[in-house]
Amino acid sequence: MQIYWTKINRIIEETAEVKTYLLDCPEDFIWEEGSHTHFALEGFNAGDKPNRSLIRHMSISTLPHENLIGITTRIRENCSEFKAILRNLEVGNEVAIFKTHSNVPLKRENKNVYLLSSGVGLATFRPLVLDYFERADNVNQIHSLNIDSSKDFLFTNIFKSAPDKNFTSQFVDNRKDYYEEVKNLATDKDGLFYIVGSDEFLVQNIEVLYEQGIKPEQIMLDKHEKALPDFLSIVETL
To answer: What pLDDT score was predicted for residue 103?
Structure first.
């Protein structure tokens, strides 16, 4: 396993609670849209075993041509040890990234694509939308739906409806409106549905989609292939 040590190049305060850490890109580090990585803080591998409290699984919110590796995360006032350390890091501090992989690359199958996310989960979809804007081949249209009760919606410069690009962006701040809209989107029985958020959020969305007749193969989750059956098999209980 190769561990890439790199430096924080810039820190962007997206909202009061959300920051994006832009990391220098190591020369041979590669990734694609929809990628996640293991993001670790100094000291995580100092002992005989990795200190897992200093490691988090994070989505990469940038594309390679942006030449910086973006990690976008929410840091609340009361937070974990990891987030507390991260909050105090500055430009020039070192962090580590390793085990990078994409579970949710943009599928180009001449279908409509629906991006369903909660809060900072939208960071996973930022590269997919940018990739689509640059090359819309074999994607009919994209519709993004994000729920964030804080009402501090992210990346509104990118996630804004653009009819000329066949792109629609919706933000809602409550579950009732969100799931009603999911049901409306699921009237497209041939669409592809990407979901990013907490495990509970994934399960709730899958249940709604299944109730509307959407099939497991139409649902994409930011989960390792081995973990997918644990989520998608809930269809058997409905």
So the answer is: 84
